[in-house]
């Protein structure tokens, strides 16, 4: 494993620092001024009391696992389900359960994953701010005790800010995907496909290529006030190492909201292209290269600008037309 690049944040424009960056970066002290971080450095109880001030009386989805899971939210042994339960509860109840079991070495695991901050803790982000200039991020809250969120990717870029507790991040570049042994795409612990390897005790006989992944792994431990930039599609496992862990993250995509999700295109390609004969798959690979992966001004230079249709700039009306075409074709 290798250390993730890092910098001590001393103020300045975060957006400029991250502009065009495609590799992870640890930002030490980025949010150390947050009131929530200051309370967390005082005590878990103080951090919980501060967060509770903002907790809305709304339902949230949370995960609960018995001590036998050892904090790892994952599949059960035969992949027929999971080793945890998902329940609808309240953020304040999750907090209470975490505090109740604080200090226990064999505690059950409580975990509230990515939940929109303005929904569950309205006003928190206004007092604990991160300015990203022209970026309009979605801000989410993560809350739990000692747990292991197995390696997965996210489509948006992401700044994860540790507000309470200690977390270890282990990251892999997208090209390590084949060495991570990815599980099912349609049945996942929390919505995203995950690595099947238990990083704490890897079974190299079953997953031999994981040795290669580890050679390229990047890792860092972050405390309250630190943050990390995780670029789109980088695989990451997050280990929460404290009795109380609170994280806020800022998600954004580098395309307008009206553009589709790449994962939708992947699923459709699996449906329509994956089982074609090899020669036909090769032809469609060339089509994708021409119209998508290697598309440039030359692709449509021979057409009048007003006759390029969906080959023209991806404006909102173009996206609407494409979506309508797809719906029409899929509903045949």
Automatic annotation (TrEMBL):
It holds the Pfam family Cupin_8. InterPro entries: Cupin_8 (IPR041667), JmjC_dom (IPR003347). Residues 110-267 form the JmjC domain. It comes from the Bacteria. This is Cupin-like domain-containing protein. It comes from Rheinheimera pacifica.
